[in-house]
Protein 1
Amino acid sequence: MNTSKKRSQSFSHSCIFSHEALLILGLTISEDCLYLNVFTPHATRLDSKLAVMVYIHGGGFCMGSPPDDMASVVASFYDVIFVGIQYRLGILGFLNIPGSEITGNLGLRDQIEALKWVKSNIASFGGDPSRVTIFGESAGAVSASLLMLIPQAKNLFHRVIAQSGAADSVHTLCKVQDKIPASTFLGYLNCSLGDHLQCLRTKSQEEILSAQFKLMSSATSGDLWVLISPTVDGDFLTDVPRNLLRKKQFQGVPSIFGINANEGSVVPTMMFTQVPLSMYTQEFFKGFIFASKNIPEGENDAIKAAILHYYTNYSVPRTPEVVRQQFMDMFGDKFATAPAILNLQSLAEAGVPGNFYVFAHRSKYSIWPDYAGVNHADELPYILGTTFKSPPTLPLTTGFTEMEKGLSKFMMKLWTNFAKYG
């Protein structure tokens, strides 16, 4: 571990991720990225012992960065210490090759190292190491929830807030036994299994990013995503989340899990942006469900048929708009609603306090089409205080009304009060 002093006069680079996302977010990237940002209220003293909120950013485990100066709003308005952390992303953070020394989950290990640093050092910033809340959105929420299941993270935090994600949200989170995904990725780099480690070390950042882009763009990317997200490695994550939750093998701390009203809107607005509206047919919907390999109970056509029946709207003609809504309803339940409920049920059965919320306010100046409603990530500006930045630093809306600024204050108060008092 490097213990040398570093003069910090600007924010660090973000961890490496795709250039396409960089164009959207306007960030710079580097392998030298494992830093964290600490924001304190103006009058903080060493003996203040303020509650600490550690934010884990989202981005599908393959992109993203912690908030920069916007985090000062939360800290200064509500007297908490705000810590934004970084972790390795994509291939560099989660590559795993069965039967080799590359076991994955480096990004999660980075998060734990950051929490260890907070525990050892946050008192020097006026923070209370016995009142640490971890919180995040999307992949950050999944991370916070997964950390409850990882023995190495025990006693590093005391409360959890998971926004639009939970441990069981990652459909690829499993014990990887098939070497085909790794072999496919290595092939993009003209490497092969066996000498993969030596070969990978010769590749540049640009080559790694190019291979990752090909991986994510592949027609079989549903299988290949196991290389760029958390997996069961037998040491760090010992089993799939739903099994660990059912066996009560988790750190039971007071928690908040929540969703936005239209989480599934992420499908047409952020994920399947190249899919034309005309593609949303009932046959496409049925084929998507029956091609899924993500049924927890195994390949069961009866369950898939039940899912198809449940989400099919029989009351109106199944136009492309109607089928698109079916996709959104199903996807929102799959990756956000159901995993959150599963986590909260497990906490309740263990006698641990848990809370659930639904964020249902659509921003007046939202960038999303009307059918998207309250989309994935739409709550972030209200919780991170970007409502008080001009122009907004999260490109989800072009501005905020005075009422929305009041809503933001209310939500920041709720989040920080939970961090302070539980």
Protein 2
Amino acid sequence: MRTVKLLMSVLIAITGLSAMTTPVAQAQSLEIAEPGTVGLDADSLALATQDLQARVDAGDIVGVVAAIVRDGQLVYAESLGMQDIEAGTEMVFDSLFRTYSMTRPITALGILMLHDEGLLNVNDTLQTYLPQFAGQPVLVDAESSDASATRPRQGDITLAQLLTHTSGLGSRNSALYRDNNVHSYDQTLAQVVDNVAALPLFEDPGTAYRYGLHAEVLGRVIEVVTGQDIQNFFEQRIFAPLGMDDTVFYVDPSRADRLATVYRRDDNGQLQAHEMEAIPVTKPRALNSAGVGLVSSTMDFLRFSQLFLDNGLVNGEQVVSPAVVRMMAENAVPQQLLPIGSGGYWRGSGWSLGGMAVVLDADTYNHTVNEGEYWWDGSAGTRFWIDPEENMVTVIMAQISPANGNGFRESFKTLVHDAIE
């Protein structure tokens, strides 16, 4: 079977080893196994691969990497299509991807680790750590971008509200934030957060769910509390213990040949290379964005996700506590603020303190999920799901704009679920 052969090549490429029982990483161990040993039908998984190949052939995506870990074992790994059309570079398992909002759960984990260590409390007010947020008013009209039309704020923002997008902050793509150049890669994280604090909130804290720029602020809280910049904190506290060696803010020349190109259809329907940021990730940038800034690999996100199914253990060492795992996985949006949206899966989702959507009503989803599953994605075609019921992690990575890619991620997830015996 092609997948088994690719799994072996993945093992050799990443570790330089060839024994089936050898861990994939010296930190987070994931052993190679055949799908049938963990209750997945190999023929059904082949259908998932065929569907992905059909999506590549149709031009929904240019290339893709997908992988499945079940019961702690890597049982599916596929790379299909092209990493870069113009260069003639094929997609490979260790290709790198701009993950955008999949950065948020990593930042959330950092905050929860500090909470667990008593260095902060998620119920603390934001102004305890960033006093510039103390006097922030609220827009009279949340749909307006007139920063002068405000009223006094009712209540103070807490870290928990930042984690659950219920603080009143807005999106980096909102008219208010765009008009005031709040978020750009030529500004530092501290400058971006100061920009946010200088503008009014969209609602009073704790009164509504609004997906927004919260992780940037949380990243700055991490810097203030630890005295480390966010990059060093991530590297020392999260990436090194998990073996996430390819998760970076800046793709230096040693990694550049593995970075997948983002593609977008032009007015004639032709796929063209598309740079989504004014300063590309291959150039040093002032902003290490704690919300949308990380580049990563499929294997690194398998390792990150498996941490929670292993209850915070990495090779027998308790890297994060079971309490943190629960906080990462469980809905934390108050009942009175549910549903968090009116359309599609938003109607059946909560949001965890871990920066991820939590499935509360699987029937609202347009692909197969289990209640209690938690997941998130990125705006260039990446996504991961963590399913406690099936003890399974599914990761899929592509680089396409818009990210939907004609539903390739949803279709893959449904076909994977169909493979469960």
